[in-house]
Design goal:
about 25% helix, 4 helices, about 180 residues, alpha+beta, two-stranded antiparallel ribbon
Length: about 180
């Protein structure tokens, strides 16, 4: 599926990711959140977490989940972003959202999240989109709030000790559930 992008941008293509995309998706996700390359963009978690954000096994699990899909977003034939959608009853879960660091800050994220909401609503008839965000990421939470998401005050602990999700640099990390009504969009 194609959709328009912000003024001055080339056309985007949204497609379901395949197993063959896993290495490129891992590289994209890591570049957006971890290490020095992530500092080019504003979504970096490098000050909160070291180590990996995901791996090929984790990405393939999302790609092959029976109740979900991983959208690969391309511009001019190159992978520039991705996001996970998972059907969970009356809601969809939005996760694994990554935009290439050198493409951040120009409105691309707004277009992608709007397409993800439309896709979830049309595919599954869901009324809400849910996501979890590290509660220490106030700037990122504020960005989602500007997109209509609301904080719920519901927290789940960060999986300390499981290096598949990174090596925490702080002892106070937790995920907060954010929710948006997408039924009437």
């Amino acid at each position: 599926m194609d959709t328009a992008t912000p003024p001055g941008s080339a056309r985007l293509t949204f497609r379901d990711a395949t197993d063959a995309d896993a290495p490129a998706l891992v590289a994209l996700i890591e570049s957006a959140y971890r290490g020095d390359s992530s500092r080019t963009g504003w979504t970096t978690e490098a000050d909160l977490l070291e180590g990996q954000r995901t791996d090929e096994e984790g990405v393939r699990a999302v790609i092959n989940a029976p109740a979900g899909r991983l959208l690969a977003v391309e511009r001019d034939g190159g992978l520039i972003a991705c996001c996970q959608l998972e059907h969970r009853g009356d809601a969809a879960y939005f996760g694994m959202f990554a935009v290439r660091p050198d493409s951040q800050g120009g409105g691309l994220g707004k277009v992608i999240i709007a397409e993800a909401e439309r896709t979830a609503r049309e595919s599954w008839g869901v009324a809400e989109m849910h996501m979890t965000v590290i509660s220490a990421r106030e700037d990122l939470i504020a960005w989602y709030e500007r997109r209509g998401y609301r904080r719920t005050g519901q927290f789940t602990p960060f999986p300390y000790g499981d290096e598949r999700f990174g090596i925490p640099q702080r002892a106070d990390l937790a995920f907060e559930l954010l929710v948006k009504d997408i039924e009437a969009l």
